[in-house]
Amino acid sequence: MVIGLSPMRFLHRLKDRLLDIVYPPICQSCGMMGFWLCDACLNEVEEASLAPEVPAGIDGVLSCFAYADPKVRILTATYKYRSATAFELAQSTLLQHWVQQHSLPIWAYDASVVLVPILSPESRIATRGINHVLRLAQTFKRSFQLPSSISTVLGRLEHDTHNAELEHEERAANVRETFYLKADPPKNIILIDDVLTTGSTLAEAARVLREGGAEQVYAITFARG
Fold first, then answer.
1. Could you read off the pLDDT of 152-170 as tens digits, one per residue?
2. What's domain 46-158+169-224's architecture?
């Protein structure tokens, strides 16, 4: 066993190594063997605007990459719907490179701020086998070296239609009244999500958190559509 690894982490790492042998990594963008997304393709990933429109109820928002880039869609949609945890290393590498090139807003380094992932409904987490936004929050915390703790205080009810299947104007209605609080929320929060499109999801989450007592609500997303 590798020194310093718990038995569970050792088994997860062993499983990943065995899967790499059975299903060798192939770059999902250019086809190069040995990588799920090779260095050349990672270096060509398009970044999102640094001055995005801020959703209602959000005090500040940061989105790192442009969802229009097919490579970014691989690292978000494929990761989410196919539970492709092998892409987490590429996500982390991209985020580490991004933070080396840009300054994070001061609120991101406030130790009193708590990271709150925008979770999927429990049934979808069970179907996919991973809690992908919780794992993304952990990736952000490591890659950006954020001092914040992570809380799953925000729950989500089942809704019939995926937002990705809806037009922009339909998304606000689809997420309305779908969030609930499992406990009193922290006063200062950074919401974590994979993709920001219309901002309806973040706005609804912020509304519920503020009604529960949150005072400042920020947001960080991996991509912006």
1. 999 998 765 665 555 656 6
2. 3-Layer(aba) Sandwich (3.40)
